Amino acid sequence: MSMETKISIVLTTYKSNLIFLEKQLNSIRFQTYNTFDVIIIDDCSGDGTEQFLNEYIKKYELCSWYVFILENNVGYKKAFKKGLEIAYEHNPNGIVFMADHDDIWIESKIERMSNIIINNKNILLLGGNSIPIDKDDNIITDSFITYVDDLKKIKKEKTLYKFTNETLLKGGRFQGCVSCLRSELIPVFLEHFTNELPHDYQLNIAACFRNGLFYLNECVIKYRLHSGQQIGCGKGPGLQTKEGRVFQVEEMLDFYSKISNFLKSYNIQNNFFNKYRSYYEVRKKVLLTWNKIHSFFWIIFNSLSLVQVGLIKDFIKDFLLK
User: Whole-angstrom Cα distance, residue 305 to residue 248?
Assistant: First the structure.
């Protein structure tokens, strides 16, 4: 890998489980490529997190690791925003990784992903897959990317996959913890930042609508699922009940409303997105207000369109729960 390309890592903490945090810090420290800066933003934890971080850095003499303590608790989105601001100030022409405080990085993550993004000028943001683990580091399943049909169809021998706007807006996105990006994307992110959407989704949109969002078909971290995490763990009733499916649809409609407002800041009009959102509005009617006969004939009449947008299975399951 070119030594001219500077690498920065932005990691945020908040009242961290110190066992999980130490494992994450160790996995970063033991990377096969270890020339990088680490910018740690603590979101005003007010517990022992700050002391632990400073003692860890001192113990291992990590002169390029820095801890910044926020005066007030601002939430994970603004905490990452602050970290990316600092990263851009010190590394405007390099590569930036983002890290959560409770995962475990695969030891070759930085070397592998940096090499790919350096050698492919079209990539603005590169996301990878992950291996879900529980609180005791036990593997739950061998892959986290299971919920987007476009990604399910990727053949194992295909290493890189370019995201389309449609794939992104259907729900395919990369969490920050499996992503790296060119620093040049950060000013765009900062200009359009909103606290209404996850920071990583905003970065995904900024990269995708510039034709620069790519997926690496490899696991780059062990992604921890546990009850204490702020995002990423399934919440709400299960999808096997009518209540659960209504909950999911209402969450998606709220999400799409926020995305719609966000896209306006980019002056983006996307017909596919508008159609996709309208189908979720119909799903809510199927579940709550339409009778079974009305729902059946609507699904049959629109089946081809539903197949094209990848929602036919959801509508059939909604119908069967009526």
Answer: 21
